[in-house]
Every structure is written in C-alpha cells, then in structure tokens.
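REVIEWER CHECKLIST
Item 1: Sequence provided? yes
Item 2: Single chain? yes
Item 3: Sequence as submitted:
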Amino acid sequence: MISVNDFKTGLTIEVEHDIFTVLDFQHVKPGKGAAFVRSKLKNLRNGNTVERTFRAGENVGRAHIDNREMQYLYASGDEFTFMDTETFDQFSLSREQLKWELNFLLENMNIKILSYQGEILGINLPKSVDLKVVETEPGVKGNTAQGALKGAKVETGLVVQVPLFINEGDVLTVDTEDGRYISRA
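Item 4: Structure as written out by the authors:
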C-alpha cells in the first residue's frame, strides 16, 4: 500500500481492481475542511484518462508493472505478433490494444511490453522513431512564409506535419507521444 501523499508522476497504482498510472497530482489544503489530493490518472487497461480526488492520507495499492524487452515480428490480419528476446516465446496483441502505437511500429523493432501479474497491458515505445516518407507534395519555391508546414505520409501510414524542404524518401525522426516531427534522421 502507498499513501496518496507520496504520489509521483509515473507511479502505477491499483484502485478498485483497475491499474492506473499517475499523470498529474496536486495536494490541496483548503482553508476550511480536510486536505485532499486531486489527481489525473490513466487507466492502463483501456487507455482512458480520469480525474480522481483522494482524501489526504488515504492508501491505495501499489501496482508493480513488469517491463520486458520484446521484438515486433509481423502482422496477420488484426493480430500483431511479438517475441520475447530472452525466451523466444511468441504472443499476439489485437489492433484494438495497439491503436496509437501502430503509427510507429516497424517489423523487427525492439519495444517493451507492460504486464501486470501476467496480464499484458500494452507496449512502451521508444521516445522517438525513425520513419521513411512515402508520400508528400513537393515544396514550392516562394512558399517560405515563416513556419510553413505540409503533410507527409510515412511508411506506417501516419501523416506528419513537416517543413517544406522534406521530400519523399527522406527519413524523419518522429516523437511517439504526439506524432510530431522532430528532425531529419
């Protein structure tokens, strides 16, 4: 058990049989009444974000999440197969479990699988990935207004807003948290 007074960003907790990670928290001490902790939590089972208020000093269960190194092998229909790099065991996750992550997954990519007591909660991507541009409009000379951007479709199907000088065949470094262009690789 852990006290809500000890919350930290990134901490994983168990509340009412669900697993959450703490995204944000704030200790509030009103002039009248008892202190409390206002928190923003992400459900690791379904990806929903909820705001929850706890009484100061209240205890919640601590969830120990396992991070195992895995390799993405291939897709077969709506199933995506991964392999444990130590034991070579294989398992599949559905398209539903990997909604956002599919924008960045490439075959043979190493990632981390998040699991809790044997239940697979999802995958943890690297902070950024390098993806090849497969389709974009050419930049038109003279369209150089400050901060001009255009859409570029990368090999996974994600459309990224990029500067005008990016061409088809370029390799981009893309942030996996928000799909934002970082630089050319």
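Item 5: Key structural point noted by reviewer: The chain has a mean pLDDT of 88.
Item 6: Recommendation: ____
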